[in-house]
Amino acid sequence: MKKKTLQLIETESLCNFAMACPLINLLFFLLMFLPFSTLAQTSKNISLGSSLTALKDGDLSWPSPSGEFAFGFREVAKDGFLLAIWFDKIPNQTIVWSANRDKLVPKGSKVELTADGEFILNDASGEQIWSAESAGSGVAYASMLNTGNFVLVNRSSSNVWESFSHPTDTILPSQTLNQNGILYARYTATNYSTGRFLFSLKPDGNLVLATTKFPQNTPNEEYWSMENPNIGFQVIFNQSGLIYVTAKNGSLLSTISSNMVSMKDFYQRATLEYNGVFRHYVYPKNTSSSSGRWNMTWSTSSYEPPNICTSIMESRGGGACGFNSFCTIEDQGPTCQCPNGYSFIDPEDERRGCKQNFAPQSCGETSKEETDLFEFQELKNANCWGGDYALFESVSEDWCRQNCLDDCFCAAAVYNSGGQCWKKRLPFSNGAIDPSNTGKTLIKVGKQNSTVKCGTNTEKKDHKTLILFGSAILSGSGVLNFLLPLITYLVVSRSYSRKAKVSQTHPVISGVNLKHFTYEELNNATSQFKEELGRGGSAIVFKGVLASDNGKSVAVKSLDARVGENDLEFKAEVSAIGRTNHRNLVQLLGFCYEGEHRILVYEFMSNGSLAGVLFGESMPNWYQRRQIALEIARGLLYLHEESSSQIIHCDIKPQNILLDDSLTAKISDFGLAKLLRIDQTLTMTRIRGTKGYVAPEWFKRLPITAKVDIYSYGILLLEIIFCRKHFEAAAEDEGPTILADWAYDCYKQNQLHQLFKNNDEAMHDMKMVEKYVMIAIWCIQEDPSLRPNMKKVTLMLEGTVEVSAPPDPSSFISSIL
Q1: Exposed, middle or buried: residue 343 (CB in 10 Å: 0-12, 13-18, 19+)?
Q2: N or C terminus: which one in the chain shows less Cβ crowding within 10 Å?
Q3: In angstroms, rounded to a whole number, what is the distance separating the alpha carbons of residues 10 and 14?
């Protein structure tokens, strides 16, 4: 197993850092002991017999004296409550501890400090779910302390139970983690149950991060460690923001986070995230200077390993992202993605892994014949560590591809420039995409028509059996023999008639594998197309609920039958998005092609369009807008360069960007999309798109390339940055406001702050704002050759590539509005 290890911070290096060892010792003494003198407080005692009840609209809780923390019930899922402790003075009320993370309780559940001093959580039926281990300790009262620690206190004023001794995924200043102490990450960002990663001070004194043998909680394999062999005794998080490991005698062994932060000005927490990274966060107590989010001051990715994706290389287990998936590191941590031809087993839990969307290659007599039904998706800088069943040396890539193609057991192959070829069977694990990986991974996937051949032979066999069976019965009677041709004719004719009817109702659209809905199904799902979500020039979108899919909500897009080109638009949209699979594209679930009905069924996006959010009353915060911009860029990068068929969207605008319940951005509405052949880089066609977002080359009748989407994205990026529409009417004595012109003028004059309205957090991050504006200006250059491709745009947004000063995009923008 590959394991990254942090060496101890030697005394000599500490001396170099502080200039002199005596000064370090004095400073360490002050930081360790002085802060704890401030812990005294006036407690709000919770008397025996007190209780709290989980209510949907209830806001009852037991606050700390300062009001900074609260103890009570939080609804974290539909009809599911968590008994928890949280920061109570910040908008998102971040949870730091919970009692019943693996068994949520319903409305009406109650936590009670009984007259006998027991602290018990019962569900609505009275069944005990959890209790504090304090029986027989003579509990006199409970208290929520200003430190975030909830305690049960006896008559001698000693704590007989405290939440600090039973952490979940977070530790707070003044909290310690003893030997055998463990933090377990939550399952996902929104699921608080015990997840797949742990942070532990082991009995041997070493501090480690490890995966778990999920669903069991026992450690699997370590992927980060700080070694303090045989002497590591406690992890301490003090009130000056230092997190460090001490020996039993209290001496410093190693520091984890050395960023000193004032408790007076900042809230602090250290959390093991659901993605396996341990981070130290701070949040300004002064709301006027707050960005509305926790800021990271340190994480395990600050040291080795810099990339959790390449550090988790388990001999058993799916790696950082689960089986058949690939992990990539991004600004906010690792993200998971499925290769083309695969999809997430559970879209709400990306780390559960991916499944095939095509019929696997058989290993029978027809195995060789089936090789024409499969091809490879090539992932550069990608690897799947471990789990290979064959290795070939000194072979060419073509040889490696063919060998895997001919082998029905081979699901993927990893090939490097040294001529080595590793063959993998399903499921492959530890998938990672990173520049440090010099090779490539070849994923075997079914071609576009390889998934529609199931059942054909069986169906023919069944009809043949039926005819022979009828013949056998009738041949025994001479009187009935003359009926045999007639009966056979009727059986076969009915069969072909049924086939023809199905074919007319659900014609196969080449290259896609989607569910065929009947009009009746969708009519029922939408309650006769009752709830309208939105409409465009040629379609109306309705909300629907699929009874056949456990009440799953969907968006049903009905194309106007009166529009002459609706058939072309329908087929364009199905062909374009039906082949795609990316987390930043709205998923097309199926379609109806029946009579005059042309209907598309999409996943439902609960937060509607970006336009509604961006220009509404409660716009996303600056961090969320940056994420949305990056997610749109990644979706376009996939369409332009990574999908099996290169796609130009042709109509990128806020109305065509949809947001799910976590504000993840997904590109939608492919009705105008233009598919390019593999060997085609440009095309000529009539003007497509929406006024204000259309690239100049449309009007100049120049060849159209993917750069038209880059231009539209640049306009959209400016709207995202400033939460302003690109074109806004002004007063009669003023001309209309063109955002692109205004932004460039303000950029040149270093006056970008003039474009903001009520956006303090972005105003405090003007360096990043300027960078994003520069990227947008590069995107809207009149000359397409000056615009970067989507790969470079994405890298600039991620901070991997520097952004140079852009030239004047020209006045063309104003002339076409």
Answers
A1: middle
A2: N
A3: 6
Task: Round to whole Å and give the CA distance between 57 and 70.
Answer: 17
How many residues are present in the chain?
A: 817
In percent, the amount of the chain with pLDDT more than 70 equals 76
- DSSP-derived pairing of the beta strands 552-559 and 597-603: antiparallel
Work out whether the CA dihedral 298, 303, 307, 311 comes out positive or negative: negative
CATH H-level superfamily of 311-446: Hepatocyte Growth Factor (3.50.4.10)
* Identity of residue 190: T
Position 222, amino acid: E
So what's the architecture of 607-815 in CATH?
Orthogonal Bundle (1.10)
The CATH homologous superfamily to which domain 508-604 belongs is Phosphorylase Kinase; domain 1 (3.30.200.20)
SS (H, E, C) 318-369: CCCCCCCCEEEEECCEEEEECCCCEEECCCCCHHHCEEECCCCCCCCCCCCH
CB atoms under 10 Å from CB of 344, counted, come to: 21
- Calpha distance 183→243 (Å, rounded): 15
| Rg value, the chain, Cα | 31
CB neighbour burial string for 409-439, b if at least 16 within 10 angstroms, e if fewer: ebbbbbbeeeeebbbbeebbbbbbbbeebeb
The model carries a pTM of 0.54
Is there a shared CATH topology between the 1-34+167-299 domain and the 43-166 domain?
Answer: yes
Please confirm, yes or no, whether 346 is among the known catalytic residues: no
C-alpha closest to that of 119 among 103, 97, 141, 101 = 141
Separation of alpha carbons 575 and 673, rounded Å:
9
Structure tokens, 507: 């014609």
Query: Where does residue 180 rank: exposed (0-12), middle (13-18), buried (19+ CB within 10 A)?
Result: exposed
Domain boundaries, the chain: 1-34+167-299, 43-166, 311-446, 456-505, 508-604, 607-815
pLDDT grade for 472, boundaries at 50, 70 and 90? very low
Architecture of the domain delimited by 43-166: Orthogonal Prism (2.90)
- The Cα angle at residue 805 between residues 802 and 810, in degrees rounded to 5: 135
pLDDT at 314: 86
**Cα–Cα distance, 755 to 749 (Å, whole number):** 12
What does the DSSP assignment read for 356-409? ESSPPPP-STTTTGGGGGEEEEEEETEEE-S-EEEEE-S--HHHHHHHHHH-TT
Which residues touch 104 (CB under 8 Å, ≥6 apart)? 76, 77, 80, 81, 82
Cα dihedral sign, 409-411-413-414: negative
pLDDT tens digit sequence for 573-605? 676 677 677 889 998 888 888 888 888 899 999
**Position 694 confidence tier, pLDDT thresholds 50, 70, 90:** confident
Q: How far apart are CA 232 and CA 251, in angstroms?
A: 10
Closest by Cα among 317, 322, 363 to 339: 322
Across residues 659-663, what is the average pLDDT? 87
Considering the candidates 407, 651, 669, 709, report the single residue annotated as catalytic.
651
User: Does residue 106 carry a pLDDT above 70?
Assistant: yes
- Give the number of other Cβ atoms within 10 Å of residue 168's Cβ: 23
Distance from C-alpha of 454 to C-alpha of 154, rounded to nearest angstrom: 70
- 1-34+167-299: which CATH topology? Agglutinin, subunit A (2.90.10)
